[in-house]
């Protein structure tokens, strides 16, 4: 009987040690990004027969390896329909961290609403690791500048699980 009690205690201690060892903090993988810096400003105007969404020059921050790639995808939804087009791929990220300026963007339409968005896709080793999107919508003339909404998505293609301070996180 004492042997069974001792064996039970040893098994409990062994598995308890494994659980405690595996519950220690772990760090999520290195996060590289190219993302819009807030605010992204725009205006909505019209003249007879022409409605326009004008996005002012916008800044984006980056923290990537020198050979990372960025693809910016422009999408417009307006009275002409939906259109989407990638801009030329950007490479050569000097110093690996900093800021760059994105050129102004204009969308013309026959009427409101007009929605324009640009998604910055960050690729490291040919794998999509980060997406940052701004969305600007015009439903009437603006009186001054408006702030576009910005959405950042880290690791958009891979699932991961990590633990910190006893909590488990999951990103699908």
Q: What's the gist of this structure?
A:
With 172 residues, the chain is mostly beta strands. Helix content is 12%, strand content 53%.
List keywords for this structure.
single chain, 172 residues, mainly beta, Immunoglobulin-like, four-stranded antiparallel beta sheet, 1 helix, elongated
Q: How would you describe what is shown here?
A:
The protein is mostly beta strands and 172 residues long. 12% of the residues lie in helices and 53% in strands. Strands 6-5-9-10-12 form a five-stranded antiparallel sheet, with no helix packed on it. The protein has a four-stranded antiparallel sheet with strand order 8-3-2-11, with no helix packed on it. Strand 2 and strand 3 form a beta hairpin.
* CATH top-level class: Mainly Beta
Termini, distance in Å? 49 Å
Helix content: 10-25%
Radius of gyration based on Cα positions: 25 Å
User: In the CATH hierarchy, what is the architecture at level 2?
Assistant: Sandwich
Indicate the low-confidence ranges by residue numbers: 13-28
Shape designation: elongated
Order of helices and strands: HEEEEEEEEEEEEEE
H/I helix tally: 1
Number of domains: 1
Q: What portion of the residues fall into strands of 2 or more residues?
A: over 45%
Going across the biggest sheet, name each strand in turn: 6-5-9-10-12
Number of DSSP E strands? 14
Mean pLDDT: 81
> Strand pairing plus helix content: what structural class?
mainly beta
Largest sheet: number of strands, sense, barrel closure: 5 strands, antiparallel
